Fold each of these.
Amino acid sequence: MKEIFDPIRDHYTFAHPASDLGEHIDFYSESVVNDSEFTVEMFPSWTPTMYINLGNPYRISLSRSTYAVDKDMDILILRDLHTTRHNSPGDRIFTIKFKPGGLEAILGISQVHLKGKIVPLHHVLPMVVIEQLKNGSSFDARREIIEAYFIPKHNRRVMDHYLTFVRDLTETYQQTDMQLNVSQLAEKHFITSKSINRYFHRVIGISPKGYFSILRARTALTAYAKRQEFDPGRFGYYDSSHFYREAAKFTGVQLD
């Protein structure tokens, strides 16, 4: 199954974070135990994601490299590469997906150093918290456990200027229907393009142009998949040909 194009959510239970964490965490999810093998392909998003293994071993691929994850192993990845999770019978994963910069906003850990890596989760979360998550009685219980750990951490942190700026600039880009380029955004925020580039590399780990192209592609493809009067111009593409070229570059799939 491919993210955006296929009903991946049918295989997971989802929940949104508490309001205090909503600016920095996209969602929590837990896979529904299945009795068959299948793959889930995910496109780059630069969203740090924690996978707590509650079931059997599985494999995960980052671009062309595949790694075995045993039942006692829990991991963190940045999702900066094309990622495929190979689900096996008895598969069950509790997932925490952060927004770009969210890991730093809550735990003070820069996502820049996670590029292209699989990081053992115990390098980021205390083992006692991981064990509590694994032994939680339900999805809701696990959500409450991790929020009880995250919220005090978040409340003690002072919002970093770089994080705030990157978030505000991204909101401006989205609110203007993804029509503005980096120079136009710089002018709107009274800052230089060079500074914007430095801030995005500092917080997300990629240039603003590169990140916005990913954000635009994901947003446009989601609308395209719904097949409801899709207009590529609404997402900053010149025409349909421009959208199809960029979509093929992003997904590796030629759209109809």
Amino acid sequence: MDIHKPKPWHGVREFLKEYVIIVVGVLTALGAEQGVEWLHWRYQVRAAEEALLPEIQRNLLDSYERIMLLPCISGRITELRDRLQAPGSQWAADPDPRPPAGGDAHPPLADLARGAQAHEMNDVVLTSTRPWQDGAYQAALAAGVITHMPREQAQHYARMHRGFEQMKEWQAADHAAKVRLTSLAFDTALTPSEKHEYLDVLGELAFINNQMVTSAAQVIQGADKIGFRIRRAHLDARLKTAAPLTRACFYQPAVPLDPR
């Protein structure tokens, strides 16, 4: 069996030649590997952006809806405040601020999956209950895709996500406060102390309402600066849904819209 021994170098020149060949080969291999990795992350970033877009659109639309409901919620809080300040201990429940539910007593499974509602317990104050979306952002964050975006772009996504998270937290506080008003949905007698407690809850709701509207406006303005806008078609569809639900007490602030 022949064994090929490495040839000895004849001079520095030949050594440098072999050295350059090795270095160039290593650098070429590393460059190719980095190129493949760059293409991989570029694809991942593009896929993440495609997943993030509908999520951001949905959250922006929900933010706008909260602004739309400002006069509805403020008006209802004012109405309840004035009634609680009226003399007398008897409290007469007024109708649910929403129209009667009606409809099928046995709704399809798909409708239940979107969220079952206990209509036997009326809401005293009507507020939005839509869940805030963050699945696509959390998935991109967990997979490390956000860190492979351009720095400024990643900061924009993070800022929007923080805004949506803040809205989610305020909404949770809003729901917790609303539950404490449930007794006002029924005929009852109220002591002066109970009236004061309910007035405190209404004050809490008014504060939360203002904070949510402020946060929603900031989120929409921030998104507009980086090219994310609510689509006209989505807004028109939401308005059709909101009109009968709120008895058309809402208003429509002017915001930049995507014409699609």
Amino acid sequence: MFVAASTDCFPQLTLAEALDRLVDLEYTRVEIALREQGCQLKPSAVHANLEQAIRTCRELQRLTPVAYFVEIDAPPPLYFEQFASCCKLAKATKVVVLVMRASELGTPFNQEIERLRELVRIATLESAVVALKTEVGRMTQDPSTAAVLCDTVKGLALTLDPSHFIYGPNKGVSYEPVLQHVCHVHLRDTRPDKLQVRVGQGDVEYGRLINQLRRVRYNRALCVHIVDEQDPNVDHQGEMRKIRLLLESLL
């Protein structure tokens, strides 16, 4: 296992600025967020000029890309076309994991299965893996449902975000059912009443989580996902540095 951080930690910064910040904080690996919102790299821009996106993602200032977080707003068929371009970007930059969000609660199960099968089919063509994020308000908020999705869609994996099993309607639920499907991890500290709190003030048991992951032979990223909320009372860079040192001390 190794420590990484997401450019999503700095939503107000450009991609270049976020990368600069991570280098200053002594991170060496990065998850790059591809979102239409904000001022970083967008899936529509990747699709419109793939070669430029590849050049951008190869100039990462000594950071090694380990995953892409992909959130596409376009309707089908453009949705799948943009995703295919993101998969080509991943292959060109030697990245395997593409983190995707599950559909919102209330989406018909069969409809979600069809979407996920198409995403996995497209990703497989570029030797990539779709890693569905466990998340409150989405079909993966319940670990048993998340495991069923992976069992039903061959080749589908998960991004484990344990905070969403501490905070939200399923607080305290065991995420043991999903561990065998995990190929990426998002981390921050969390309390049952608040998704993001200062490191050390929440209920995430990092040592226990790492031991659980070791038992299923997980050997990939522990990706820090502490979003800068622009709170003057919180030293965001200090929190980013603190969790990196904590995780590295446990590995």
Amino acid sequence: MAKPKVGLYWAASCGGCEIAVLDIAEHILDLAAAVDIVFWPVAIDIKYKDVEAMEDESIDLCLFNGAVRTSENEHMAKLLRQKSKVLVAYGSCAAEGCIPGLANQFSRDEVFDYVYDKTPSTVNPEGIRPQTTFKVKEGDLRLPAFFDTVKTLDQVVKVDYYVPGCPPIAEQTWAVLEAVLKGELPAPGSVVGAGTTSLCEECERERKEKKIKKFYRPHEIVTDPEECLLDQGVICCGVATRMGCGAQCPAVNMPCRGCYGPPEGVIDQGAKLISVLGSVIDSKDSDEIANVCATVFDPLGTAYRFGVANSILRRSKLK
């Protein structure tokens, strides 16, 4: 009997999800014995033309990590959708847009102006910018087109399942692989390997009444290791984040950053967090409330660190 065929692809992301696949530890031996990995550019020598030559739906499972930032990412998303029976948005970048999605505050030209001209370490007196084509004596050199807007995978193609996290924890990765191997997949569209409610449900810190007079960044305060971080004024995104990671960050005295995306039923994770923060400010005086709000460092980066591309707004208005 033929083994199931598995593919993995790395689009616009840091590459942490590629490493996370190896975090399944000894299960990597079970995986290697149970499947044929037919596409994994970071680990095996295979070309896009080899995938294009495959029969449609010949890949049983594809883990696609990374957002869609370029024309190459878009092409591969559509190609792997065509060639895969089951396509999984693996990790926060594919599911939510994640850190690359923060670029949706700016246009492509603004991104290029900063990266290739205004950064302190850049020396580019000629103002050179990347070109999609450039002619040299050997022929035409080509680069993928850089899109104005970062998109999530499901904004480009149909996605069958989601595995959240930045990166997903090993238990989640193995859960989706094992489900495919056993033929025990949940309903299409499901989030695999995570819960439905907020991270607070699995956090062991003691929660009390929240009466906030000031918000702190983690390095600005010595916190009580037993008490809810948000109770102490440290912005913890756990109230607006799906459970499933075991609250690993709060367990080591760091606030949740929100990488598992919104809990079930929450449309916009950032809006949910902002609503919660507004409700815990201990004042009815408008000036005092404004002063407390001013202590939130980088509001967009705090509330939408992982979800700008998947939010209601998705990006700032282009000129």
